[in-house]
Amino acid sequence: MSTSITIKSLSKHYPAMGGSGGGGITKAVDDISLTINAGDLFFLLGPSGCGKTTLLRMIAGFIMPTAGKILFNDRDITHMPANKRNTGMVFQSYALWPHMTVLQNVAFGLSVRKIPKAEREERALEALKAVRMDPYAHRKPNQLSGGQQQRVSLARALVVRPDVLLLDEPLSNLDAKLRLEMRHEIRRLCTETGITTVYVTHDQKEALSMADQIAVLDMGHIAQIGMPRDLYNRPSSRFVADFLGETNFLQAEVTGNSNGSLTLESSAGPLTSTAFDHTNPPNKGGVTCSVRPEALRISSGDDHNSLSGKVLETIYLGEMAQHIVELRGDQRVKIFELHPPVTNRANDDITLSVNPDDVVVLAD
Ligand code: ADP
Ligand code: MG
Question: What is the rounded CA–CA span in Å between residue 28 and residue 30?
């Protein structure tokens, strides 16, 4: 019933724009392969220009790939026209018809599909109910808030009972509070309807809080794919570690590997890590480690992964304090202290400790 999406070696290359010659190309999407499980809420996450919209529009059928294949279940739809793919699309701009009521906006896609009038209204109301907008059925779009308009455009995408729902930065035009509310709403809809959904965003919090799976994109390539917690706790590269939140990078030399633990020597002191690729452990030599600010705890100093240093500055934020700490060897790290007992620790000598599972050895 539900639809899986398989993408095989998909590329979209554009001739380079601008006059200076050279005949270069822009690789908007470059040799991407991935599988999206039926019923999943799958995120394409990455900075502006990394190819998210291009990839989504190829799935929708609005952009033809330069190379590669797209399958819905076992069916190759690479060259199928957009209107035959049975997808629903939601854009950042709500794109509602201003002269139609909410109900007419939602029912419109059904009249194009030649569904009889009585059934159109029934299904439109049902879709409005799913997004909790049925009480507003007879209003015009300009009588709605931004969040309500986005709910209507979701209903409009759902009413055709799509096999695949495609969302391109759907919450970017909303204020912070509505964004949070709509995250919850879209997650609920995906779970309740079971429609396979591809969601494009540059907002890592949105992806981490909603996704079943996330593909992080970087310059037309996949940097890493995984579940939110895996990506956050086990980034494989600097790019992913940095993009998915704040982190500290520590350079270190590998000095040993035994019983699933790496011993490392950083300028700030010795460290132990259990967070590395156990199938392909780094050999002796230099590596970069990522340590999240919230993984560094102020400790009494007798833990085995402890580093001593001096607090340079504190920013007090109520629920937490952020400290910049200078460790040995001029290594500076940022730490988050939850529920801080004091507002300022500047100039304090402190010891930090970190769980070996939170010292993530990056592959590149
Ligand atoms: P994102 O949605 O992640 O911000 P896009 O998919 O819109 O990124 O664009 C990816 C890259 O492809 C960008 O460098 C962009 O400038 C380029 N690009 C997108 N569309 C075109 C086009 N029609 N012609 C040429 N270059 C394009
Ligand atoms: Mg885009």
Answer: 6
For a mutational test of ligand 1's pocket, the pick from 26, 48, 167, i.e. the residue with the most ligand atoms closer than 8 A to its C-beta, is: 26
CA of 265 to the centre of ligand 2 (A): 42
The amino acid occupying position 233 is N
Query: For residue range 189-231, what is the model confidence (pLDDT) as tens digits?
Result: 999 999 999 999 999 999 999 999 999 999 999 999 999 999 9
Q: For residue 256, what are the β-bridge partners?
A: 263
* Alpha-carbon span 57 to 4, nearest angstrom: 17
pLDDT in tens, 319-354: 999 999 999 999 999 999 999 999 999 999 999 999
Going by alpha carbons, the residue nearest to atom 6 of ligand 1 is 51
Torsion angle of the four alpha carbons 218, 222, 223, 227, in this order, in degrees rounded to the nearest 10 = 120
User: If you take atom 22 of ligand 1, which residue's CA is the nearest one?
Assistant: 14
Quick check: 169 and 8 in contact, CB under 8 A? no
User: What whole-number distance in Å separates Cα of residue 85 and Cα of residue 56?
Assistant: 13
Task: Indicate the pTM of the whole model.
Answer: 0.93
Locate the ligand 1 atom nearest the alpha carbon of residue 220 and give its number. 10
Tokens of 177: 């509070």
